[in-house]
Amino acid sequence: MCGGGSLAGTYVDAPLSVLAPSTNGRRREGGGAMSGAADAGLVSDAPPPAVVAASRPPSAAVSAASGGLSGIVATVLTQPLDVAKTRLQLQRSTPGVADKYRGVVHTLRTVAAEEGMRGLMRGVSPSILGLTPSLSLFFTTYNWWRARLAALPLLDGQTPPPLTGDSALVGMVRRSPDVLINGVAAAASWTSTCIITNPIWIVRLRMMAASGVEGVASTRLIIREEGIAGLWHGTAASCLSAPGAALQFCIYERLKLPSAADAAAGRVAPATQVAAASAASSVATTLVFYPLEVLRSRTQAALRGKTPPMATLAREMWRTEGAAAFYKGITASLVRTVPNGAMALCSYEFFVRILSQLVDERAAQ
Fold first, then answer.
1. Which of 51, 104, 105, 185 could in theory staple to 24 by disulfide, Cβ–Cβ 3.0 to 4.6 A?
2. How far apart are the first and last CA of the chain?
3. 9-43 pLDDT, tens digit each
4. Chain-centre distance of CA 276, in angstroms?
């Protein structure tokens, strides 16, 4: 997740790119799910019926379990693309010397020829070990932050329409509190998850960057050469992607809202819409924030104390490699992030429904 630049990849790439049911529109008492479409007429500038569709958010346990399971599914299926993306990102171009890796397909072929399937799946174990707690933590904290923010004035979905003296910003918040709720919750959750899980991602990155290095050996090497603090090397660069998580979540939540017909029938958005929303939000976020991911990868791949400050590193990359250096591996990132995010989100929604149903059935017994 935080080792990948966007939540969908988490992490996300980033990772990340994963959301619970939408918080748009009115909410029931206590800041939980949105109230029914029947309440929409109480406010003159209320969102359309799709925005106020009823949607019960999952419990913390269901959210955590579903996030972890979805991360496993997405990671196993897209790990070769993640390896290709990482090799391309870390490759430094030298004038007059041909790059070892040239494009996604060429990188995959080279790794497969030199290292076999083991090389293509390098880092999958720490990826799974990282994504399971990362997505579990992210989903849980994301829903927690949304519930708390939804209870605040201006964001509770029950604030009167904009007043004459309101500023443009306050008026926008009154009309669309979900934008601020989703954005702030995503950024806060991303930051806390990055800080807690950074050791896992830095070990994973070092494993994928070089052949013949296993997880335990890589961890011991980092601690021996850099100390315990080396496991948190590059955390600041990862946290800088929090605005990207906020942007992605705002786009995704808005695009995945059910249609008016589905909302009236109490149905959630179909899987195809969730996948399309994930793809669109992942592409937009990656294009805007990808340079930060390249900086993060190079910072984490280097030994602690041997990497210049990010501003200095960025200037050096611009001087020696040009603007293209900031978008190295972006094709591999998009090829991986889009299907990874779609699979992660669709499987998350699937596991949420299944586990919630099991919990409800057990509670009814």
1. 51
2. 38
3. 443 333 333 333 334 444 433 333 333 333 433 44
4. 16
Helix axes of 271-301 and 242-255: crossing angle, nearest 10 degrees: 170
Whose structure tokens read 């990340």? 16
Distances (CA, A) of 205 to 82, 132, 133, 141, 213: 10, 17, 17, 25, 11
Q: How confident is the model over 305-351, as pLDDT tens digits?
A: 566 677 888 888 888 888 888 888 788 778 777 777 778 878 888 89
- Within 13 Å of residue 299, how many CA atoms lie on the same side as its CB? 26
Least confident of 49-63, 141-155, 179-193: 49-63
Q: How far apart are CA 259 and CA 56, in angstroms?
A: 17
Report how far residue 122's alpha carbon sits from residue 91's, in angstroms, rounded to the nearest whole number.
Answer: 17
- SS3 string, the chain, reads CCCCCCCCCCCCCCCCCCCCCCCCCCECCCCCCECCHHHHHHCCCCCCHHHHCCECCCCHHHHHHHHHHHHHHHHHHHHHHHHHHHHHHHCCCECCECCCCCHHHHHHHHHHHHHHHHHHCCCHHHHHHHHHHHHHHHHHHHHHHHHHHHCCCCCCCCCCCCCCCCCHHHHHHHHCHHHHHHHHHHHHHHHHHHHHHHHHHHHHHHHHHCCCCCHHHHHHHHHHHHCHHHHHCCHHHHHCCHHHHHHHHHHHHHHCCCCHHHHHCCCCCCHHHHHHHHHHHHHHHHHHHHHHHHHHHHHHHCCCCCCCCHHHHHHHHHHHHCHHHHHCCHHHHHHHHHHHHHHHHHHHHHHHHHHHHHHHHHHHC
